[in-house]
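Q: Two folds, back to back.
A: First:
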Amino acid sequence: MIDRWIQGPLAGDLRRPLVHILFGARQTGKSTLLARLVPAPALHYNLADPEERGRLLADPGAFRRECEALPVGGGPHVVVVDEAQAVPAVFDAVQVLHDSDRLRWRFVLCGSSARKLRLTGANLLPGRSLLHRLLPLVLAERPAPAAAHAGSFVLPLPSPPAHSTFPAAALEERLAYGDLPGVVLTDEAHRASILTAYATVYLEEEIRREALVRDWGAFVNFLRLAARESGNVVNYTAIAREVGLSVPTVKSHYQLLEDMFAGVRVPAWSGSPRKALLSTPRFVLFDLGVCHAASGARPGPEVVLADPGRRFEQWVVLELWRRLQYLGAGRLAFYRTRGGKEIDIILERPAGDVVPVEVKWTARPRPGDARHVDAFVREHAAATEGFVVCRCPRPMRLTARVTAIPWSAL
């Protein structure tokens, strides 16, 4: 079993007398992680199983009665529910049980979609629960090759003691196949097939099974276009025209991808006094390998070589976004004015300072690559330094305010 970054913090949190909700996309390793942290739960429900799901949907009170049948004393009895969103009534039952005796049970609810919970107004147990996220791998879990620069300049992620990590990987491998744990541990020859199956079975069939969209053919076309446009500023009107849907429907489809933890919305930065900032967000699919497969391309080095700079920028956005989720504070945005000034990432760190970050595919950065970042730092008091993330072998000062760093030193 390879350690995950969240493993230590989550193990500590699970000792607290609260309800624990673990969200994350399919195949990020939720069940595997919980099997290690809770090897012998008193009760385990897998609501991805149609028979188990149908049983609780037909008799919602069965869950509560089975929990109440556990012995009084000797607790807490840990109850794990996989894909809990499939039966939203479980959340109400958990509240009743938890409020009646918070020391008798310890509930751990897993979910790969918040769609049903949001639409049904499901009870997410405010004041009684801790929300956790499990995401594709970050650099702390899957290190760079030994020759790459160690350390973190932009957003350090405290590293709990780990006994093992996933195999080290070069940048090109990450851009080609993404960072899902199961894909990383598979032979390279089979990764493309696994990712293609994931895009079909999860991003398409799972949505169809839950009857979340009416026009299935139009949604498949939307998904492919959204994957091809991943990382770009969203043009709702153009996408709606391309796939033959209304603009509100296209917006709801993007919301669906967010609800299923399959996409990240990156807003335009609003902390600037300038009036000409754009307000339309960028949207990035949550994993590059899945993004390639969902777009209709075969994941692999060839798809990266077609547009390496854009893929590299998406990877940096996702790496920083995942770290912010684990840290539980901070914000990610992009900066673009109608006058043409553009910066790939504006990072509001948990400490409150603002850091502009430009992403360049080059291995030989020059001061000209830092001009917009340097100007941003000069114009904004909350920013004291900026970075150009690239493929240089070691950190390099470009201007008095901007440093070029290797991708491994994020």
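A: Second:
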Amino acid sequence: MLNTKNVIETIKMIDRYKFDIRTITMGISLLDCCDSDGKKSRQKIYDKITKTAEKLVPTVEEVEKEYGIPVINKRIAVTPISLIGSASSDKNYVEYARVLDKAASEVGIDFLGGFSALVQKGQTKGDQILINSIPEALSVTQKVCSSVNVASTKAGINMDAVKLMGKIIKNTAYLTKDEDSLGCAKLVVFANAVEDNPFMAGAFHGVGENESCLSVGVSGPGVVKTALEKVKGESFDVVSDTIKKTAFKITRAGELMVKEVSNRLGIPFGIMDLSLAPTPEIGDSVARILEEMGLESCGTHGTTAALALLNDAVKKGGIMASSHVGGLSGAFIPVSEDEGMIQAVNKSSMNLEKLEAMTCVCSVGLDMIAIPGDTSESTISAIIADECAIGVINNKSTAVRLIPVYGKGIGEEAEFGGLLGRAPIMAVNKYSSEAFVARGGRIPAPVHSFKN
């Protein structure tokens, strides 16, 4: 029930502590858009997206004004295009990306995810065509995001796909070199990708989903940090309990918003993603939450333990507030999108190896990390393999969004703008992994995957 105290508290969360709904994402199935004629298929895609989502943005904006809670991004996720394009005789899927971009602009959304392929066990013809189309597709579009799932706990790691993605990332960096290799910021490589993730760049609409649905990704690092400021010096039991209570409030607000949009559009509510997603703004940082627990600088010893507590407490609080929790849920640790993380890198308290350790206990993985533009394909592939191994062995989603910034090196900075922020160029290990990556084949699934 609403009361004066709750209303005032919510106003403070929004006005002072940067609470927002990070995204409301509409999932749209394109399975009925398959056609042996690629041109006809793309017309079906355009027509379906523009018809299904024509009222998404105005409806969300209407609810925003009524409730006073900002929704930062309005997004769409579609069926992986490798599945749709494979029905056609096309040899390149760039035109599919163009029509997705056109549809996204027509309905006024910020990003569209689903230029994707699922190749954890092997690659079909459609998968190969899509993956090879990624660099050009991301260089000629503005709003399209791409993802490739190369590993799963059930299947192991497809090292042929991992090797290929090193090349694809490098090519994407080159084709968007005039924008600090921005195309790579819209490309993520997954292990254990989920079908209902509302966050970009990894969102796609899984084949087990509804014809269409609405999912929401909440945020509120600033709210959590402010709550922890009130329990300085208290035990970790108190810290955990404080985060849980705060996550509950944030989740309730997010579910209220998406259900209202759902009712007005007549499209079912999908899931609530509980992830704390930072922004480049001061006071909206996951790194600052960890430092509030007592770390002098994020990345120092104790950071992984602090992140584990945060991630767990966010989930415990959130699942009490919503019956349909899904997506990735927990805490994101992107470098370029978190001002505290950027400062930690600049102070040398944070490096790539520490970030990798932190991904063992957070929501996703190595996210929005800028590396030298001359980093080799094999090194990028090896970094992907390491992160996939963490996901496969721990039966969790992990991902890599690396940006080899063409023409820049360690000590320089890349500018991406908006929510994507800016990133200092981080060092990678100077020793080669080429012979390792060249082996190809599959790293088998772990023994604990044999459950039925």
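Q: And?
A: The CA atoms of residues 189 and 321 lie 31 Å apart.
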